């Protein structure tokens, strides 16, 4: 079964069960500054899971283009990909466990034809601390479903992953695990969730490929074991809780289901081969690489490289379509890494690179465009084809130059007779020279490289960027210092000024504020003229000089919407919302005078009390495109 067939079957099955098919949201989130990429189907639906009515009803289904950067290093084994399609179905306060688990079971066994004997499931063991009971309902439903197929499903309690490696299968079919395995929220386990975040217990389905357990991973095998015998193919999250300010959990107004299943993994199960790279969508790309390299895919020396090139070029193709361009920051940096890593591994395979549209990476991307353009019409047309292929070739060429320069540096270092960890690290961070390359070249010259030391440097670097992304989760503010707070207030002034100068259709698409500068991404089709920039600066500075009060009010969401308040953080709409309004001069918390306010935004703060505190001149430093129809401004107060 091809992935196109499985996708269609899934959408049709849920449609026949009362669901509306909704399109995949873009892989670059449109109104959610908390994350760089869409990594699951539920992300664009958070407001509805929190209780907003969805215009298309309470039963939804789709296939969502998803990307998880945290898996880049894992790619190369038989199951990890960075880009993947997540099949999703949602009940927004409509059906619950009783319907969801049978839906998915029926889909797998009757539509896809998986043998129920190869399916194993898990459920949440409960969490006393947070007052969340054990999910006995799911276990009962699963017992019944298996029994209908003539399988006597034994329920066993595992607990943690470590317990799993100790206790093993115990003849079980339904397994209880703790929150690390059977609780889902965007932030992970209950303790890591910020206030206002929804989450809940989940129930996962695993496919058993029947391969032998590898004790390298632990003494005993169990469904969540990483040895490769079991592959998780679907996750039904019972999204029913919200974390409160005091750290405890409350029930959401509606009991939702958020299901997500990896399309590629279901396809792997359907063909009974645990290698997700053996599914149809990768066949032509890998075939091409085999043809031009003369290497075998099953040759363990090269398999990882085949997989990396295929995975990375597919992901890069989707990112370029979404308007991401290679650069040294954030999304652009990740795209750059994908293309450069693919180039490196193509080289390792020994494929001739070719120029322009003949480049091997361009050819791989073109194959993927063909494969996906029917399911994702945004990939159709000469324009997007040209943009994707040109950007890949441009980046490949630039990488070749970087390597040349890096080579010179490497030679200088190698001439000293040894390569320190710090030197390898600098080669990588400053010259973009891959560590694997350093290792290989060093080996050729009989030199040692301190891999452990290099790893330590990298871990430090990663810990720093992780801290950066945790900060992102707080909603675009790097911290709550005075400087950041001033720029946050300036950010509100700027959004309004942009709407005044460029038109009311300008909407915020992302924000990031540090002590040094503010940054806003907004929807607008063309480059701003110098006159427009001057006018925007003039308006913001005028409002700073008018010494306007910034007023916080808490009001029902509907009322705030009627006021036309800007939705700053698309992801969170509780019933009562916090709104910041700026001016008029005599506005007070008791009498905010919204009618005369200069700007009103849904926003949790913090802000200065009065624009007089901005004490300086607002200046736009840079205005540039970040994606089709999205501009970015960086600005400061000097
Ligand atoms: N949100 C859940 C996941 O990502 C299910 O869709 O696994």
Describe the structure in your own words.
The chain has about 650 residues and is an alpha+beta fold. The protein has 4 domains: about 5-275, BirA Bifunctional Protein, domain 2 (2-Layer Sandwich), CATH 3.30.930; about 280-410; about 415-470, no CATH class; about 475-635, 2-Layer Sandwich (Threonyl-tRNA Synthetase, Chain A, domain 2). Helix content is about 40%, strand content about 20%. It has helices at about 5-15, 45-50, 95-110, 135-150, 160-165, 180, 265-270, 280-295, 305-320, 330-350, 360-370, 380-415, 420-430, 435-445, 450-475, 480-500, 530-545, 555-560, and strands at about 20, 60-65, 85-90, 120-125, 155-160, 175, 185, 200-210, 230-245, 250-260, 510-515, 520-525, 550-555, 565, 575-580, 600, 620-625, 630-635. Strands 1, 2, 3, 4, 5, 6, 7, 8, 9 and 10 form a 10-stranded mixed β-sheet that branches. A 4-stranded antiparallel β-sheet has the order 11-12-18-17, with helices on one face. Helix 11 (about 360-370) packs antiparallel against helix 12. It starts with a helix and ends with a strand. About 45% of the residues are buried. The model is unreliable at about 470-475 (pLDDT under 50). The structure holds serine. Serine (SER) binds near residues 41, 88, 237, 258 and 260.
């Amino acid at each position: 079964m091809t992935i196109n067939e499985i996708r269609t079957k899934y959408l049709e099955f849920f449609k026949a069960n009362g669901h509306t098919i909704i399109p995949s949201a873009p892989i670059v989130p449109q109104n959610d500054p908390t994350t760089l990429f869409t990594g699951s189907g539920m992300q664009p639906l958070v407001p509805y899971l929190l209780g907003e009515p969805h215009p298309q009803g309470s039963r939804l289904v789709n296939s969502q283009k998803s990307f998880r950067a945290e898996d880049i290093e894992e790619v190369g084994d038989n199951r990890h990909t960075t880009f993947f399609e997540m099949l999703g179905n949602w009940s927004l306060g409509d059906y619950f466990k009783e319907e969801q688990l049978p839906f998915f079971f029926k889909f797998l066994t009757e539509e896809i034809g998986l043998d129920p004997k190869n399916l194993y499931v898990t459920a949440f063991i409960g969490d006393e601390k947070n007052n969340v009971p054990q999910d006995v309902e799911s276990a009962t439903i699963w017992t019944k479903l298996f029994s209908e197929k003539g399988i006597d499903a034994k329920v066993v309690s595992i607990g943690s992953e470590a317990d799993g490696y100790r206790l093993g299968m115990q003849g079980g079919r339904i397994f209880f695990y703790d929150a690390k395995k059977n609780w889902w929220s965007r932030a992970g386990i209950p303790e890591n969730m910020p206030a206002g975040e929804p989450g809940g217990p989940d129930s996962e389905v695993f496919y058993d490929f029947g391969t032998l357990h590898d004790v390298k991973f632990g003494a005993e095998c169990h469904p969540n074991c990483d040895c490769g015998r079991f592959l998780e193919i679907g996750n039904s999250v019972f999204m029913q809780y919200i974390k409160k300010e005091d750290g405890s959990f409350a029930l959401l107004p509606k009991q939702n289901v958020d299901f997500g299943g990896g399309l590629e993994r279901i396809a792997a199960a359907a063909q009974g081969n645990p290698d997700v790279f053996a599914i149809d969508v990768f066949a032509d790309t890998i075939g091409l690489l085999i043809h031009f390299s003369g290497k075998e895919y099953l040759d363990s020396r090269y398999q990882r490289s085949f997989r990396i090139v295929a995975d990375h070029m597919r992901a890069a193709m989707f990112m370029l379509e979404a308007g991401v361009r290679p650069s040294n920051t954030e999304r652009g940096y990740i795209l750059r890494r994908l293309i450069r890593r693919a180039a490196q591994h193509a080289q390792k395979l020994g494929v001739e690179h070719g120029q322009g549209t003949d480049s091997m990476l361009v050819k791989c991307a073109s194959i993927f465009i063909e494969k996906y353009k029917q399911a994702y019409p945004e990939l159709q047309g000469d324009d997007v084809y040209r943009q994707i292929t040109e950007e890949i070739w441009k980046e490949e060429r630039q990488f070749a130059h970087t390597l040349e320069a890096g080579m010179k540096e490497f030679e200088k270092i190698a001439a000293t007779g040894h390569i320190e960890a710090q030197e390898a690290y600098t080669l990588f961070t400053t010259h973009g020279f891959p560590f694997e390359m350093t290792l290989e070249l060093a080996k050729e010259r009989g030199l040692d490289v301190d891999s452990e030391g290099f790893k330590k440097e990298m871990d430090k670097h990663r810990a720093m960027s992780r801290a950066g992304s945790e900060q992102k989760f707080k909603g675009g503010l790097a911290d709550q210092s005075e400087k950041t707070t001033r720029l946050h207030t300036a950010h509100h002034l700027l959004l309004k000024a942009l709407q005044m100068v460029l038109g009311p259709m300008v909407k915020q698409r992302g924000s990031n504020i540090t002590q040094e500068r503010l940054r806003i991404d907004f929807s607008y089709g063309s480059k701003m003229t110098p006159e427009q920039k001057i006018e925007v600066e003039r308006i913001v500075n005028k409002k700073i000089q008018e010494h306007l009060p910034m007023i916080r009010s808490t009001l029902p969401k509907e009322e705030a919407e009627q006021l036309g308040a800007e939705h700053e953080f698309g992801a969170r709409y509780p019933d009562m919302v916090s709104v910041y309004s700026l001016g008029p001069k005599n506005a007070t918390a008791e009498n905010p005078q919204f009618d005369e306010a200069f700007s009103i935004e849904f926003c949790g703060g913090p802000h200065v009390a009065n624009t007089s505190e901005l004490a300086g001149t607002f200046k736009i430093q840079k205005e540039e495109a970040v994606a089709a129809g999205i501009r970015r401004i960086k600005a400061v107060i000097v």
